[in-house]
Design goal:
Number of strands: 0
Radius of gyration: 21 Å
Helix content: 55-70%
Number of helices: 5
Strand content: under 5%
């Protein structure tokens, strides 16, 4: 069974080894983050303190693994390096970091999607 997050979308021979390695790293990062989520859910659900401690320990180890892969991605991709340097370890608004980096004002975020009514569609 094909899995869009782990299987290649193109024939392996049509891609460079670099792109295949990037894919391996991205899939590994996804797997590590998924494991973090699973351990966190299990730790939160259990009422047994010593089991919670073990699960949280395991969760933190998966975070370590995810960070190691992320650093590999940063070192091997100029685009990842640029984005990570723009957004990580900054204080202030995360969404304003892009405006600072690009000098272009960003669209204000809204809580909800615009609502169209029959009247608004008819110009009423």
């Amino acid at each position: 069974m094909a899995n869009s997050s782990t299987d290649l979308h193109e024939a392996p021979h049509s891609m460079s080894e670099r792109v295949r390695d990037m894919h391996r790293a991205l899939v590994s990062l996804q797997e590590e983050l998924e494991a973090v989520d699973w351990y966190q859910q299990r730790a939160d659900a259990t009422r047994e303190d010593s089991l919670r401690d073990v699960l949280l320990h395991n969760m933190r180890e998966e975070m370590e693994h995810a960070c190691m892969v992320l650093e590999w991605l940063r070192r091997n991709s100029e685009d990842f390096d640029l984005q990570l340097r723009t957004y990580l370890f900054k204080s202030g608004s995360i969404t304003e970091a892009e405006e600072e980096a690009t000098g272009e004002p960003q669209e204000p975020a809204t809580d909800r999607a615009p609502v169209s009514t029959i009247g608004s569609l008819k110009g009423v």
